[in-house]
Amino acid sequence: MTPDLIGTIGVALLLGAFAANLAGFLSRRHAVYQGMNAAGASLAAYASLMIPFIPFVVLEGVWAVVSLVALTRTLFFPAVPRGDA
Q: CA 70, CA 28: separation in Å to the nearest integer?
């Protein structure tokens, strides 16, 4: 697959999660929202690495890691209280 296609799929996942959250369909605490963010950011980071464009590798890589941490917390530690900021 080309970097353009991989990046497009990644960005579509990110924007889809964002739009679903804004429309009230997905909470930011929902595993689907966090999974879409993690997958989308990972794909966008990989596509950025392929071209190579390091500023976006860093941006999307950090986004992916933060999203994976949130997803892990949601799936494995659901009773841990979190702020709603």
A: 9
Instruction: Give Cβ neighbours of residue 39 (< 8 Å, ≥ 6 apart).
Output: 10, 13
Q: What pTM value is reported for the model?
A: 0.89
- Report the pLDDT value the prediction gives residue 79, as an integer from 0 to 100: 73
Residues 6+ apart with CB under 8 A from 45: 10, 56, 57, 59, 60, 61, 63, 64
List pLDDT tens digits, range 73-84.
999 988 766 666
Give the integer Cα–Cα distance in Å for 7 and 34: 18
Check if the beta carbon of residue 26 is closer than 8 Å to that of residue 4.
no
